Predict the structure.
Amino acid sequence: MTHGWRRGGLAAGLVGTLLLSGGCWSYRAGEKARLDREPARVQPQEWPLRTTATLEPLLRNTPREIRRFELAPGATLEQIDARMRPAIEKPEMTLVHKGIYGKCLLRIFGELRYSTDEQLDGELKRQEKKWSGFESNARAITSRSIGNERAQQGQLTSLVLDAYFNSEYAAKGVPFRLSSDEARYFVSGGLALRIPPVQEKRPRGVLVHLTALVGNPFETKVMDHLAKEGWVSFDIDTQTNVLAEVPVKDREEIAQLQQRLAELTLRYNALLGDAADLVTTGAGAHLDVRIPPANRGEAAKITKEAREINKRMEKLAKGSFQFCAGDDADAMARVLASELDNAIGGNAYAVEAIVEYIKRERRDLDGAPIVVIGFSAGGLATPASVARVRDSVEAAVMVGAGANLLMLSQESTLTDGGVRLRCGEEKLPRRVREDLYARYLTYAKLDPYHTSQAMMGMPVLLLHGSWDEWVPAKGGDLLWERMGRPDRLTFAGGHTLLFYFLPGQAERIGRWLEENVRKPE
């Protein structure tokens, strides 16, 4: 007991010391020889296929004002309830710029509202900032964002639901209807961005900022400090998740569950009363149907079963990569490489769109050096992003990054990033996974293991946790070695403490940028 107390007291003391000291960091200067090496190039045919042909109609047809509600044919504004009128008068979004840059359609909104109810709109924006780290005002969309099966199914579902509600509104003589603009033009599709306004003062430089998987105050503090030092940032909500294919047997189960859900819906509707009121608020409108007291017990049972069905369908819809004994390991490695390249490539195309937008549209940033800075998931996407715009970027900073994305996804204690490797419902044995890790690198083109070579000849700063389990530390070591051992700050701890103590390194990151990046012209 005494020894346990002493060990606990010692551990608590060490944690306290770390908190007071700002953490235990060590710095190692990079190998100078790497700055003399020529960067490798990812060949055009090695990039995931994207086409601008499918984006052209969206570019032409996206209206300046995106509305959630509009007047019904023959109706006038005077017929609209005063509480609902703002939703008709004001657009949900106001488009201030649109254009195709690289492989993306970039749409920038001067006013982006999630609700006409100001209180609800503010709350929704706070939630977005909580999860992404910033309030977006733009979207970058590629042909894959609108051409994949899930996106098209989502659009179809939205349009069908809008048509259903519009028929209900029409039957009750409601003088407005849903416009379907958001679904029709894929307004919410693609990656969320924050494009800064035109700068009145000449900035120190541009930071293309690839965020961590989830917004956090530590990353924000670093970016705020760099902003005070004169850097202007273009923010990208990094997306590295893979959408695994849903196996046939799971699709069959989903179809059965959908049938059961339809049956439950019919039973539930039969329990409803006849009274139905259209309730309008500043946030919109909905039909309020009452359940008679005698039917509420049965309605509760149906609701419970429906909730369980939806939960099961959500799990099945995540999909998995099925690989069992005797299967072709190289075929699976090729599939995994293609999926991960597509996931990482989407971020690289967004970075390219931002860089082209800056060059073509932002005279206030002429001559400003461009740096890519990525945190965690954003760090994983940084090498491919740099490779995409290598001639336009002068330096890079990566926090909590690594190489061999397949290995990282399977060894991470946080998330598999959608790469659910299974044989049936069972996880694969370690020896099988490790064999796939090696084979995967043979076929991958955009993994940091390979695209790190595009970062030769440029200053790079890595910040790394020596005990990281979220982005496994061995992946960080591998990335550092593959990049020719650039400048590195190592924290003696895991991923969470690396970020917790990160604001204490903000000045150091700022100094590194000042010393390694040229002044604006």
Remarks:
- Residues 201-244+323-516 form a domain with the Rossmann fold fold (CATH 3.40.50.1820).
- The longest strand covers residues 93-101.
- The mean pLDDT is 88.
- The chain has three domains: 56-101+104-141+143-184, 201-244+323-516, 248-317.
